[in-house]
């Protein structure tokens, strides 16, 4: 029982991070029909940005209030990562918009390799340790086989994710930008003829996706205490799996998919073998694609006639 | 030009040519769309009507020609020429549509259009379809939606105004009680009316309708006539429409332009057109003038 509860806590935390990344995949797919394979590396990049800002603040500027530092790190990482993703879209995807369908996909793979190598060159290939922060834990149960703990970090991760998802949901459902995004998803030409600047809407989609990935990156860095230039790939592909599982193009689907993948991976590690946890996660991708290609909440693709 | 005195032109099309490879779909066409007029564009299938529409709304970049839209007042020829030479897209009054990308034609020049097939956002609600069309006002009021996130007053006021305008149109097209239904769930005739209402929500000075009566039954067709006439009467919006349904064309239009094989063959009042031998010939071949006259009557 203790084991189950502890793994549930761990799984939800991991799932929250996957969900945040998965939104970026699903939004970009929804609006331009492209799987942005560089998104995982944007996430990795944001973790480095967050680490650099964190170190600069605590060690050079000597700010001691951890809450303030965290808030500034989060905001700066979101802004800078958004700027990166905006530039990536401008340079690597927008010029290919009128091209054949695979062109932006290949460009995205190239961008993914570029980002990983760029970080490797400027930051070095070794793991970067992150000074521990928010180390306090709450003992949920005690006296059993072992104490079930809930760390401040985990509360922070789930809390920040929850607040951002609410804000994001409001943005998409209730504001002009969100409506324009949904309109562009359905018919870009018609949206343009109603005065919607489609290119700008796509840019803003990349910016929002990157900002959410940056939140995930900051939390990931803080949670695991180590970052590496190759960290974009596996979480990236797992978040993509989450997006596919939830139904690519569906925003609630991405969050639910993220949580499921996080839970499956954690429980698999706990009850079977942690060596094979990636196998478990990717088996889900294969099974989803075979038996449920449109995912849990996705709409089946209907050809326009 | 015919003897008919046209009202001051809103849109002046000069020497418009559009080619696709070796095919000249629109060939040196010039005519004007009068301010406050309902102008009908007719012609046999493949005459280049939709291509011309696509040039006006920025879908295609014409090979040659000038499309000058004067938002207000009379566009003096020398002003239009000066703007053309300056290389700019518009001077705030005169807009050179051939230079503008599609969304700017709607946003700045205020030209709206519908398509032959229905292109509503079928997954969004009826109300949302009408609010999307007011995107630019809302984006400005909400600071790219960021202020919207914190419930900024200007955003709320703009949102309220947008919903009021949408309600006005819902009332006009008789869909108030379906406001929160998905647009795709409406019956065909209602979807057609909603498309026109959505185009009107962009505050157009010129409304371009591509076969608005296609697929409508006679009663719906008559309702469409009333809707278009009331749009013109109440809001002063000029209308340019492509239509095959002669009961619509002859009843409501002030001015008819006829294209055939990409060329303009007639331009005048409905009465002029009905009796024009070139039009009759274009519609049914040179021999059957009597039969063609019946169709156009």
Which terms summarize this structure?
heterodimer; A: 305 residues; mainly alpha; two-stranded antiparallel sheet; B: 297 residues; alpha/beta; 2 domains; disordered N terminus
Q: Kindly state the mean pLDDT of chain B as a whole number?
A: 84
In spatial order, strands of the major sheet of chain B run 6-7-8-3-9-10
Count of individual helical segments of chain B: 13
Going by helix content, strand content and strand pairing, the class of chain B is: alpha/beta
Helix content of chain A: over 70%
The biggest beta sheet of chain B reads:
6 strands, mixed
Portion of residues in beta strands of chain B equals: 15-25%
Instruction: List the domain count of chain B as a whole number.
Output: 2
Q: Would you report the number of β strands of chain B? A: 10
Quaternary structure: heterodimer
In terms of DSSP E residues, the strand content of chain A is under 5%
Question: What topology, given as strand order, has the largest sheet of chain A?
Answer: 1-4
Structural class of chain A: mainly alpha
Low-confidence parts of chain A: none
* CATH homologous superfamily heading of the largest domain in chain B: P-loop containing nucleotide triphosphate hydrolases
List the helices and strands and how they pair.
The complex is a heterodimer of chains A (about 300) and B (about 300).
Chain A: H1 2-32, H2 39-60, H3 66-93, H4 102-123, E1 128-129, E2 137-141, E3 148-151, H5 152-174, H6 176-186, H7 188-193, H8 198-224, E4 226-227, H9 233-246, H10 251-271, H11 277-291
Antiparallel strand pairs in A: 1-4, 2-3
Chain B: E1 9-20, E2 23-34, E3 38-42, H1 49-56, E4 64-70, H2 77-86, E5 94-96, H3 102-107, E6 111-113, H4 126-132, H5 135-141, H6 146-149, H7 153-172, H8 188-200, E7 206-210, H9 218-235, E8 238-242, H10 246-252, E9 255-260, E10 263-268, H11 270-274, H12 277-284, H13 289-296
Helix pairs in contact in B: 4-8, 5-7, 12-13
What's a concise summary of this model?
Chain A has 11 helices and 4 strands.
């Amino acid at each position: 029982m203790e084991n189950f509860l502890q793994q549930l806590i761990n799984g939800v935390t991991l799932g929250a991070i996957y969900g945040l990344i998965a939104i970026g995949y699903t939004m970009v797919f929804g609006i331009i029909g492209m799987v942005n394979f560089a998104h995982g590396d944007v996430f990795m990049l944001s973790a480095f940005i967050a680490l650099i800002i964190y170190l600069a603040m605590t060690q050079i500027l000597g700010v001691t209030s951890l809450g303030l530092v965290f808030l500034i790190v989060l905001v700066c990482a979101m802004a800078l990562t958004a700027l990166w993703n905006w530039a990536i879209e401008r340079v690597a995807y927008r010029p290919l918009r009128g091209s054949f369908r695979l062109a932006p996909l290949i460009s995205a793979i190239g961008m993914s390799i570029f980002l990983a190598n760029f970080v490797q060159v400027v930051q070095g290939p070794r793991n970067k340790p992150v000074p521990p922060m928010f180390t306090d834990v709450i003992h949920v149960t005690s006296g059993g086989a072992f104490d079930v703990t809930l760390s401040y970090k985990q509360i922070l991760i789930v809390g920040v994710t929850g607040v951002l998802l609410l804000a994001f949901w409001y943005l998409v459902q209730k504001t002009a930008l969100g409506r324009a995004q949904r309109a562009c998803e359905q018919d870009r030409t018609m949206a343009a003829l109603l005065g919607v600047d489609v290119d700008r809407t796509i840019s803003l989609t990349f910016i929002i996706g990157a900002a959410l990935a940056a939140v995930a990156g900051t939390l990931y860095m803080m949670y695991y205490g180590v970052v590496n230039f190759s960290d974009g790939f596996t979480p990236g592909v797992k978040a993509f799996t989450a997006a596919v599982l939830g139904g690519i193009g569906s925003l609630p689907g991405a969050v639910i998919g993220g949580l499921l993948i996080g839970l499956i991976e954690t429980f698999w590690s706990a009850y079977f073998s942690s060596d094979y946890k990636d196998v478990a996660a990717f088996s889900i991708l294969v099974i989803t694609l075979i038996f449920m290609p449109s995912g849990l909440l996705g709409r089946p693709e209907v050809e326009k006639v | 030009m015919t003897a008919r005195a046209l009202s001051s032109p809103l849109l002046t099309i000069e020497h418009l040519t559009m080619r696709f490879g070796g095919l000249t779909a629109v060939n040196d066409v010039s005519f004007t769309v009068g301010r406050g007029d309902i102008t009908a564009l007719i012609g046999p299938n493949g005459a280049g009507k939709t291509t011309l529409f696509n040039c006006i709304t920025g879908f295609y970049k014409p090979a040659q020609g000038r499309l000058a839209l004067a938002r207000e007042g009379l566009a003096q020829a020398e002003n239009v020429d000066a703007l053309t030479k300056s290389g700019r897209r518009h001077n705030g009054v005169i807009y050179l549509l051939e230079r503008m990308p599609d969304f700017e034609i709607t946003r700045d020049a205020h030209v709206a259009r519908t398509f032959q097939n229905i292109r509503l956002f079928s997954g969004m609600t009826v109300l949302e379809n009408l609010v999307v069309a007011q995107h630019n006002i809302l984006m400005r009021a909400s600071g790219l939606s960021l202020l919207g996130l914190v419930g900024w007053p200007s955003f709320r006021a703009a949102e309220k105004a947008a919903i009021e305008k949408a309600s006005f149109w819902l009332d006009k097209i008789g869909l108030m009680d379906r406001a929160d239904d998905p647009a795709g769930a409406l019956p065909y005739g209602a979807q057609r009316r909603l498309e026109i209402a959505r185009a009107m929500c962009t505050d157009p000075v010129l409304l371009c309708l591509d076969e608005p009566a296609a697929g409508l039954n006679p009663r719906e067709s008559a309702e469409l006539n009333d809707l278009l006439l009331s749009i013109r009467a109440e809001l002063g919006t000029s209308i340019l429409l492509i239509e095959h349904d002669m009961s619509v064309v002859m009843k409501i239009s002030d001015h008819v332009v006829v294209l055939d094989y990409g060329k303009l063959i007639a331009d005048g009042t409905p009465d002029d057109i009905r009796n024009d031998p070139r039009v009759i010939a274009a519609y049914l071949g040179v021999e059957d003038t009597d039969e063609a006259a019946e169709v156009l009557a």
